[in-house]
Amino acid sequence: MHTNAERQDSGTSAPSGMLGAVDPCLPGLRERKKVRTREALLDAALDLFERKGFDATTIEEIAAAADVSPRTFFRYFESKLDLVMARHEAAKAELGDLVAARPADEGPLEAMRHALQDELVGRLGDAAAAREFQVMMTTPSLRNRAREHFYEEEAGLAAAFAARLGRDADDLGARIIAGSVASAVWEVVTRWISEGADVDRLTGMLDDAFDLLAGGFEPPVARRPVARGSRRR
User: Fold this and answer.
1) Contacts of 100 (CB under 8 A, 6+ apart)
2) pLDDT above 90 covers what percent of the chain?
């Protein structure tokens, strides 16, 4: 027997009449049913991940919560990992490309700041995407995978910074800037998640990080007067 969702997903319908006319809206209807099944799986998985944890949730439980069979699950996703990354992968843009698209008169840090505010803050403004991001960042196995993926983008980011500085793509200075920026952004996102993941706070936290990067890592320190007669060592 098939569940309700699976019957809808199959796209079957009653005979269209004696002449066998084909409903011109049928392909669109079938696609919409597939989208609904996919969204039902994503929503069911997210609820279970938040309630039980990613590692403790089984594919069978996700399928049952979405009112489909495990076999149907695998028609849409290869694994649980695909579920938690689905919305982010669909919306993801390479950081280097985002920086390259910014106005040419912006410096590397300014371009990166605006690119992140437009991309990351905008993406996490979607409630479901923000919830998935929290699951990913609070699950050790997923967090490590996300960190590896994030740092894989450093090369593209360094190339975008080098172009903005008028230097070679493998310029050391551009790579140092890219590494510093990537580390700063990762720390901001980690702290933001641990403090409740309020989207309204994210822009301010990113601004603080980029202000620190732009001003240098140490605040200016007043020089101490050298005592008369003392020698510097």
Assistant:
1) 160, 163
2) 41
Q: Residue 180 carries which side chain, given as an amino acid letter?
A: S
- For residues 192 and 103, state if they share a domain: yes
- Of 174, 177, 172, the C-alpha closest to 163 is 174
Tell if the pTM clears 0.85, that is, is over it.
no
Does 106 share its domain with 67? no
Q: At what angle do helices 140-152 and 172-194 cross, to 10 degrees?
A: 150
Least confident span in 14-18, 23-27, 76-80, 201-205: 14-18
Its domain, for residue 189, covers: 92-215
Burial of 103 (0-12, 13-18, 19+ CB in 10 A): exposed
In angstroms, the Cα distances linking 79 to 45, 132, 145 are 11, 15, 15
CATH of the domain at 156: 1.10.357.10
pLDDT band of 60, cuts 50, 70, 90: very high
Structural domain contains residue 157: yes
194 and 114 belong to one structural domain: yes
Local structure of residue 102 (DSSP, 8 states): S
Indicate whether 142 and 75 sit together in one domain: no
